[in-house]
Amino acid sequence: MRGGALWQLGQSLTRRLSHAHPHRTTKNRSFAAAAGELKKTVLHDFHVENGGKMVPFAGWSMPIQYKDSIMDSTINCRENGSLFDVSHMCGLSLMGKDCVPFLERLVIADVAGLKPGTGTLTVFTNERGGAIDDSVITKVSDDLIYLVVNAGCRDKDLAHIGSHMEAFKAKGGDVNWHIHDERSLLALQGPLAAPVLQHLTKDDLSKIYFGEFRKLDINGSHCFLTRTGYTGEDGFEISVSSENAVDLAKAILEKSEGKVRLTGLGARDSLRLEAALCLYGNDMEQHVTPVEAGLTWAIGKRRRVEGGFLGADVILKQLEEGPAVRRAGFFSSGPPPRGHSEILSSSGEKIGEVTSGGFSPCLKKNIAMGYVKTGYHKPGTEVKIVIRGKSNDSAVTKMPFVPTKYYKP
């Protein structure tokens, strides 16, 4: 992963940056000085001091890797643990007695059905049923929702939410928001995540399960803690005041006695691919519906009956009749598949293309996700993936590629 694959990821990140829009920031969250300059999280200097190789990503300077290889870093996350700086992502809160019905106009989740302190993955949809963005949302209480949206989608997400909020409030709806630019976000992932973090808080982490949210003190700082992550491992996302972010990162690494390592975007991408988690801009786009993306489970049962969200007519029709294309996973021979590699049937017909692919550090084989015509998505189906003009034997397989280890009761 050090050579061509790392170069290609760096090029991909650079291309995504070229399509990103400038983001509104505050001095607490980011200390970029000039217009057009890459923004920096409050941990930027800490990354550099620890050997972080910084690259452009969604308008930010972010570490792609540290002193170890992406392969070693990926494996260490699954065997021990990883600490990621994900402060480039955008956290926000929706407040008011009508925040739940407001949000349900924009997402596919049954937000009203969530118990306070619990959350779920959801999708913001457009009028055609396509994905504007995916997000983890938490119902803190009936009048408070906390959510995190992707860095590269920040501007369009905030514009989308804001415009609908104005219209909703104009009709008498009670909802407001706060964008948490004063906070940073750390992701602690892996089997040592809970044991290490337990050293830094008095709250019993064994009573917090996957998808649950708490406000609690960690290392002397008031934090928002969600038991979730983007690796398939047990772990947490920790929202902390930016002024305390570096101290918290240092404390986590110290308590792990060197077993939890700072980890960059390169390993984060290989980990999420092994867990078969979508990357917005690759595996999800504005023309892809949640049904096509294999996220039907995220559409609340009540929402499947009532609809009431943007694009519901398209999505509910797909639920009834089935979509024309579906996301599928693949094992393949030859070089690692990459985005836009053609997928052919055994008879040579083009049936789709790869959206994410690479070499799995944990499985020691090539894995990929992509969209194919319905009927070719079933595990065991033999296909060909075209790489540099050559067809390579491949087969559809079940996802995730690496079993998830979420902490559930």
Sum up the structure in keywords.
about 400 residues, alpha+beta, Gyrase A, domain 2, Elongation Factor Tu (Ef-tu), domain 3, 10 helices, disordered N terminus
Task: Describe what you observe in this structure.
This protein is α+β, with helices and mostly antiparallel strands. Among the domains are: 4-88 and 182-274, 2-Layer Sandwich (Gyrase A, domain 2), CATH 3.30.1360; 324-397, Aminomethyltransferase beta-barrel domains (Elongation Factor Tu (Ef-tu), domain 3). It has helices at 4-18, 44-49, 70-79, 99-104, 154-170, 193-198, 245-255, 265-274, 301-306, 312-321, and strands at residues 39-40, 53-57, 60-65, 81-85, 90-95, 118-125, 131-141, 144-149, 176-179, 183-189, 213-218, 221-226, 235-241, 260-262, 325-332, 342-345, 350-360, 365-373, 382-387, 390-397. The radius of gyration is 21 Å and the shape is globular. The two termini are 36 Å apart. It is found in: Mitochondrion.
Shape: globular
H/E element string? HEHEEHEEHEEEHEEHEEEHEHHHEEEEEE
Mean pLDDT, to the nearest integer, reads 93
Largest sheet data: 6 strands, mixed
Q: What percent of the residues sit in helical stretches (DSSP H or I)?
A: 10-25%
Query: Rg from C-alpha positions?
Result: 21 Å
Q: Helix- and strand-based class? A: alpha+beta
Q: Strands of the biggest beta sheet: in what spatial order?
A: 11-12-13-10-4-14
Number of strands: 20
Q: Which consecutive residue ranges, at least 5 long each, have pLDDT under 50? A: 1-27
Q: Give me the CATH architecture of the domain at 4-88 and 182-274, please.
A: 2-Layer Sandwich
Strand content: 25-35%
Cα-to-Cα separation, first versus last residue: 36 Å
CATH class type of the domain at 4-88 and 182-274: Alpha Beta
The name of the CATH superfamily of the domain at 4-88 and 182-274 reads: Probable tRNA modification gtpase trme, domain 1
- CATH topology assignment of the domain at 4-88 and 182-274: Gyrase A, domain 2
Number of helices: 10
